[in-house]
Amino acid sequence: MELTDRKKKILRAIVDNYIKTAEPVGSKALSAMPGMDCSSATIRNEMADLTQMGYLEQPHTSAGRIPSPAGYRLYVDELMQDYRLSVDETQSLGQVMELKIQEADRVISQVSKLVSQMTNLPAVAMTASAGAPTVKQFEILSAGAGSFILVVMTNGEMVKNKLIKLPVSCTDQDLKLLSAVLNASLTDLPAAGFTPELLNRVSRSAGPAASLVPVIVDFTTHVLKEQQRSPVYVSGQTKLLGQPEYRDVEKAQEVLATLDSDTLSNLPATLESNAKTQILVGPENIAKELKDTSVVMTRFDIGDGMQGLIGVVGPTRMDYAQITARLSYFAENLGRMFGKPELPPSQDNDTGDD
């Protein structure tokens, strides 16, 4: 069955209407909309086809239809019209840019609060490596007889150290050799690159200090994973309760519990690395508790191999065009604040009909 232009037009009208009203949309209401130049009977037949194709669903015994996850996905990929921010919105959103704050974490925390206020939905903000974290440098410092301090510096400027006991047979010269081998073999590699074959070569090259290699690799892997799991700032969780989809207390509790868990810290790993703004609709999300929820995330560059991510969590019925425009505005200006070229382009679009 072909997805004709008329079917797409009807689907877009249904999604737009459902976003505004949270009520199933019927053929009679659609036929009365401006620009809908076909009869109620024709629209009803097209809606039946869209339902059969998996883009619409019929809730309970209602005569109307609502978008399915596949319908939302087609909407955000092909049908959604760009949203132009009003002057008032731009001024309100710009308030956070007046905060002359340099620390990334403090900026991220403030942004999550303002995004939640401006969208009336829970907001999520975090930092993440622009790609997999790697080790920038190893240092080995003497700590007196019988021990040394291992210092691991990452590409995200994280510095961690660990006190390690020395084998009796190790000399200062052996530790210098170990440091040279580590920096030659394990820097600029993600943890996934620490293969058994590579570690065997490192151990063979480390001489008398070979027994220290597994301890060092375990600690280094932990450090790289810690950099990847940056703090997640969530604001406005209770705003979810104002949405009709979450009147079911049990359903709302599932989503709220997920927002308060460590699940969201895994979000960067699920996003496309080259995507500026990404929308996860319903079942595409990282947790089954979010199967009826959508997540919209936008990236911006912080520098030093790090990126910031800001987004919102809400019902699949959210206003994707408006939210995407607002998040892009934040990302563009935060990119400037941190002195790096922004990822998302400036919004200069119209909301008029095609």
UniProtKB/TrEMBL annotation:
Sequence similarity: Belongs to the HrcA family.
One Pfam family recorded for the sequence: WHD_HrcA
Chain segments annotated as transmembrane: none
Domain of life the protein comes from: Bacteria
Protein's UniProt keywords contain Repressor: yes
Domain Heat-inducible transcription repressor HrcA C-terminal span(s) in chain numbering: 105-323
Gene Ontology BP terms: negative regulation of DNA-templated transcription
Taxonomic lineage: Bacteria, Bacillati, Bacillota, Clostridia, Eubacteriales
Job of this protein: Negative regulator of class I heat shock genes (grpE-dnaK-dnaJ and groELS operons). Prevents heat-shock induction of these operons.
Any one GO molecular function term: DNA binding
Record domain Winged helix-turn-helix transcription repressor HrcA DNA-binding: where: 2-59
Name of protein: Heat-inducible transcription repressor HrcA
PANTHER family registered for this protein in UniProt: HEAT-INDUCIBLE TRANSCRIPTION REPRESSOR HRCA
Keywords for this protein: Repressor, Stress response, Transcription, Transcription regulation
